[in-house]
Amino acid sequence: MTKELAGRVALVAGATRGAGRAMAVELGRAGALVYVTGRTTRERVSEVGRPTETIEETAELVTAAGGTGIAVAVDHLEPERVRALIERIDRDQGRLDVLVNSLWGGDRLIEFDTRLWDLDLAGGLRMLRLGIDSHLITSHYALPLLIRRPGGLVVEITDGTADFNRRYRDNLCFDLTKNAPHRIAFGLAAELREHGGTAVSLSPGFLRSEEMLDHFGVTEETWREAVATDPHFAIAESPALIARGVRALAADPDKARWSGRSLSSGQLAKEYGFTDTDGSRPDCFGYFEDVVFGGRDAPAADYR
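Structure (tokenized):
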């Protein structure tokens, strides 16, 4: 693998674990200097409550992969802390080439199949803050630095493509939170166009995050055992797939052709020719459309 992003500076906001961590590491593997932010450090645990996954560890993984990882503890709902982060990047690097808004942390708040009037209102509003406000605050402060040079990239990470999310996500606050990044990317694409910048929304498929593996009681090495519990887990993908997609986007000189669009990890894998860690190319959303929703009798292997 080449160091095609050597000399580039990236900020992965929300890089403590899961897709955020994987994207930061993959950008580092391509040679980038990567600022990784989050709320869980070796001294302090966020409301997510997973103390073994820290931004310091993510930064170390970025450096071990061949890049330079810099961990900064930031709550992206606190504007002054985000402002200070961007001022630090400007002061130390003088540029920002890639912004990945992978901020979330609201899974514990989801009450599926619960009507709005029965939801825990505080939890629902917290989801909106975690998944929408944090993205807007971060972009507000980061974009003036990113647009100094043409070719900047903003990636809005969400759950579900725009097509997939036409179906109701069974919780109104969750539905709003995961649809908003599509409109954010669409709007930013228009605002960045004159500056030569690109904005996209990007969704993984059925992600084998640390939390999901724990949910099924498996590891990345034994994940297939969980298919007995949930047959649809057979289409699951590792965080490396979406990470490789972000790397490919960041290195693509013609990335502007995607601007404003809703993309998936599987779609980018097919377009750019990369695979997941097992050599497969899972098409999660095709599988869900045809098999789960469409009733087609076909194994997940047909979509890998």
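The mean pLDDT is 97. Residues 80 and 211 are 30 Å apart (CA to CA).
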